[in-house]
Amino acid sequence: MGITRNRFRTFAVATAVTAAALGATVLGGATATADPSAEGSFLEEISINHATLPGKKADEMVAAGYATCDHLRGGTSVLDEISAVETTYHFHQGVLFVSAATTNLCPGFAG
Fold first, then answer.
1. How many folded domains does the chain comprise?
2. Is-contact 24 58, C-beta < 8 A?
3. d(CA 30, CA 101)
4. Which sign, positive or negative, has the C-alpha torsion 103, 104, 105, 111?
5. Can you tell me the distance from the alpha carbon of 53 to that of 3, in angstroms, rounded to the nearest whole number?
6. C-alpha span between 30 and 24 (Å, rounded)
7. Cα separation of 79 and 28, whole Å?
8. Are the C-beta atoms of residues 104 and 38 closer than 8 Å to each other?
9. How far apart are CA 110 and CA 20, in angstroms?
10. pTM
11. Which of 73, 56, 85, 74 is nearest to 109 (CA)?
């Protein structure tokens, strides 16, 4: 059974984010602080990757990104958070959204 390119990419991103999250957990993680440039980078990344939350304004997407960081810091697994984002917002870009959040809003999870 072959893996499609899209599934492989999704798996690769999820694996990388999971590994980074586990590393951050071991190292103690990072604390969330509002950073306008990080928030702008987050919004730009989700826009470029077509991972914006349907029907949400920029400030709501940033809040959802910080919530993702809080959930991960609280012990939610990356895969569970991806699933929760997709279920909550009824879209299929949870991997890209969680990746953008961890890269820009809680970079301790991204390496």
1. 1
2. no
3. 13
4. positive
5. 27
6. 8
7. 20
8. yes
9. 5
10. 0.70
11. 73
Q: Are 18 and 78 contacting, i.e. CB atoms less than 8 angstroms apart?
A: yes
Q: How far is Cα 41 from Cα 74, in angstroms, rounded to an integer?
A: 24
Q: How far apart are CA 38 and CA 83, in angstroms?
A: 24
One-letter identity of residue 16: A
User: What does the pLDDT look like over 86-108, one tens digit per residue?
Assistant: 999 999 999 999 999 999 999 88
Confidence bin at 5 (pLDDT 50/70/90): low
Residue 36's pLDDT is: 86
The C-alpha atoms of residue 81 and residue 58 are separated, in whole angstroms, by 20
Distance between CA atoms of 52 and 81, rounded to whole angstroms? 16
Q: Report residue 86 as tokens.
A: 């997709």
* Cβ 14 vs Cβ 78: under 8 Å: yes
Name residues whose C-beta falls within 8 Å of residue 12's C-beta, 6 or more positions apart in sequence: none
Q: Are 105 and 69 in contact (CB under 8 A)?
A: yes
Q: Which domain holds residue 41?
A: 5-109
